[in-house]
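Hey,

Quick one before I head out. I ran the complex with coenzyme A overnight. Inputs first:
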Amino acid sequence: MTDIITMQPRHIDGIEEIERASFKTPWSRKMIEDELKNPLATYFVCENNGKVVAYMGYYRILDEAHITNIAVAEAYRRQGCGEKLFRYVLEDMRSKNVARATLEVNEHNLPAIALYEKNGFVLAGKRPCYYEGKDAALIYWRNIEGELLF
Ligand SMILES: CC(C)(COP(=O)(O)OP(=O)(O)OC[C@H]1O[C@@H](n2cnc3c(N)ncnc32)[C@H](O)[C@@H]1OP(=O)(O)O)[C@@H](O)C(=O)NCCC(=O)NCCS
């Protein structure tokens, strides 16, 4: 049984572990700690019996949201956890009158691209050589206003 709650200091260890397992250039512990203090940032985690199994966050800038990250622990992938959290966070944005949301994703990250496109994000641009000077970043946007139909 997973619950979605706002990120708290006790979640840092779990997030750090998932970061390291999920990304070639993971966020450091300090970066995660700083996000907790960032007034622009909102982060949520999925907990299973007190253990962090996923997290996602965004920065609110005026009426726009920039999604900074989403990751699910490997053992919990492909079970609907990422999508449940993703939709929860989009609803959170809508409840705070965010008009549109954007994110960047590595052009080769097919699971994440599929998740974003399934949930209404539309490709709007490409930044070549963005990740480690090699892979392009794909830029996605979606409107958040009104009822969110998934
Ligand atoms: C991307 C990620 C968050 C998806 O989380 P998840 O819990 O496995 O996803 P879900 O089970 O909720 O799947 C939701 C949708 O995502 C897409 N998806 C997820 N995994 C996929 C895969 N391996 N291949 C293709 N599509 C996939 C599908 O559209 C899926 O819908 P469907 O089940 O109807 O096909 C997860 O793979 C992850 O943590 N990856 C590593 C971190 C990362 O790359 N984050 C994105 C940074 S931009």
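Strands lie at 2-6, 41-48, 51-61, 64-72, 100-106, 122-131, 135-143.

Talk tomorrow,
K.
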